[in-house]
Write a structure and sequence with these properties.
By secondary structure, this protein is mainly alpha-helical. It contains 4 helices and 2 strands; from the N terminus they run H-H-H-H-E-E. Strands 1-2 form a two-stranded antiparallel sheet. The chain starts with 11 loop residues before the first helix and ends in a 5-residue tail after the last strand.
């Protein structure tokens, strides 16, 4: 059975991110992702739409306020495992959206 997210009334940003995710993607809501994973996925999606290439791990870390790239690596690995991103072999900035949508 799918897990549903509960958003506290004061967490409008989290709810907005989740709602945008549900509306913009035909694959439906991203149930089972943490807020940080949703935020990372949203940033990567928007960055690719604007710059045509994926952001670097340093850029993702800076956007999310993380101090190390290892945290980004964990987020990206989780998004790959859940089927939202895919890694591209032998390329710089080797991330792509799994469903091709931006």
């Amino acid at each position: 059975m799918a897990r549903l997210h509960f958003f506290p009334p004061d967490d409008a940003n989290a709810m907005t991110l989740a709602m945008l995710d549900m509306m913009e993607h035909p694959s439906g809501p991203k149930i089972g992702l943490t807020m940080k994973q949703l935020e990372a996925l949203d940033f990567i999606r928007r960055y690719i739409a604007t710059h045509v290439v994926a952001p670097s791990f340093d850029e993702i870390a800076a956007h999310l306020g993380l101090k190390s790239k290892s945290g980004v690596h964990r987020l990206v690995t989780a998004l790959v495992e859940r089927g939202h991103l895919r890694r591209l072999r032998h390329r710089a900035r080797a991330l792509a959206l799994a469903h091709g949508g931006a």
